[in-house]
Each structure stands twice: as structure tokens, then as C-alpha cells.
Specification:
- 38% of the residues are buried.
- This protein is an all-alpha fold.
- It has 8 helices and 2 strands.
- A hairpin with a 2-residue loop joins strand 1 and strand 2 (121-122).
- The chain has a two-stranded antiparallel sheet with strand order 1-2.
- 76% of the residues lie in helices and 2% in strands.
- It is globular.
- Helix 1 (2-13) packs parallel to helix 7, helix 2 (22-34) runs antiparallel to helix 3 and helix 3 packs parallel to helix 5.
Length: 198
């Protein structure tokens, strides 16, 4: 849910780029360059580079907090994301969109680097293409092979896709009222995860 809100936020508030969906940034940049529109590509490049920096930061944390300390590592990652969201809400509309996009790309990369599995299976919280594929495969496996585990997996993946959609939907609605502070929606969602998550 936080990821859907995050990318919809940067798309609406930070000039049509994505914090997490770097594939989308590459597509938009290619389209813009192909049309001779070079003015908007810097923001996508900043997002891409800061995303890479975010991966490096969380990877370094993963070196210091191995699997045996995964719960602590995940709380650190979520707290890092929350601090970035709060920071963006404070400086939004006061600094260049390059700064806020870069900060949010750090947050998105943190999420993708740390949270890559669910119930011992791969998933991604930032991009739904792979999740949609897994959902289709799981539904087919249930109906074609009466695989009960596939049905459970389909339910989990459908929940992820639905939550992502709801996050984007809520942000799309709230951004017209709260503008730059709408990013706090993602912070609140992650705070709830820290408080009630296991």
C-alpha cells in the first residue's frame, strides 16, 4: 500500500517520474529523448541514481544485520523510509523536485532491497507485473491441478496487488487536498507495519 501511494505521489507531485518504478522512468525518458524533449530527463536520471544509492545503503545494513537479526534490520529499514517520507513532507514545494524525488527513490530502493520475499516466496512491493504473473499462474494451477497451496498463494498475491492499488487510489484522492504532505500516508502505513507487524 505504501509503495502504491509512493509512486503515485512522485508521479503527481514530482513532475511525472517514479520513485520506485525505474522501468517506468526508463520508458518515459526514452520517449522524451525520442521526441527531442530533453528538459524532463534529469529528474528520471536522479531517481535512477538515487535508487541505486538506496540499494547500496540497505545492502550495507544487510551486511551488518545478517538473517539472524532480520527483524531488527527490517525495523531499521522501515524507520529509514519513514524518516525520508517525513523529510519530504517538510521540504515539499520548498526545494527542487530533484531533491524530493531523490529522497523518495532512496525510500523505494530500501523497500525493494529489504522486502523481497513473502512466506518463503518471491514478490515485489514496488512493481506489480511479476505479481500479476504469479497471480495468473497460481489461479491456473489451482483450477488445472486442484493445487490448494496455489490458491493460498493467489490470495496472498491478490492482497498485495489490491493493497498497492488502494495506496495509489488514496494518494490520488488525498493529493488534491494535502499536496506535498500526502507522502505522510506512506509514512503512516509503514508506522502501522512497525507497530502491529511481526
Amino acid at each position: 500500500m505504501a509503495a502504491g501511494a509512493l509512486d503515485s505521489y512522485t508521479y503527481l507531485e514530482d513532475g511525472g517520474v517514479f520513485a520506485g518504478l525505474q522501468t517506468g522512468n526508463l520508458i518515459l525518458t526514452g520517449l522524451r529523448v525520442g521526441r527531442g524533449d530533453y528538459g524532463d530527463i534529469l529528474q528520471a536520471i536522479v531517481s535512477l541514481l538515487m535508487f541505486m544509492v538506496g540499494v547500496a545503503i540497505i545492502r550495507t545494513i544487510q551486511y551488518h544485520y545478517p538473517v539472524e537479526r532480520i527483524v531488527r534490520r527490517r525495523v531499521i529499514t522501515l524507520a529509514f523510509e519513514i524518516l525520508l517520507f517525513i523529510g519530504v513532507s517538510v521540504i515539499a514545494n520548498r526545494v527542487s523536485e530533484l531533491v524530493t524525488t531523490g529522497m523518495l527513490a532512496l525510500a523505494a530502493a530500501s523497500q525493494l532491497q529489504e522486502f523481497r520475499t513473502m512466506k518463503n516466496g518471491p514478490f515485489t512491493s514496488l512493481m506489480m507485473t511479476g505479481n500479476v504473473r504469479t497471480l495468473a499462474e497460481s489461479v491456473l494451477d489451482f483450477f488445472a491441478q486442484n493445487d490448494k497451496q496455489a490458491l493460498k498463494k493467489a490470495g496472498d498475491i491478490a492482497t498485495i496487488i489490491g493493497a498497492f492499488f488502494v495506496g495509489a487510489l488514496l494518494n490520488g484522492y488525498l493529493v488534491q487536498y494535502f499536496h506535498g504532505q500526502t507522502i505522510l500516508l506512506s509514512a503512516v502505513i509503514l508506522l502501522v507495519v512497525i507497530v502491529v507487524g511481526k
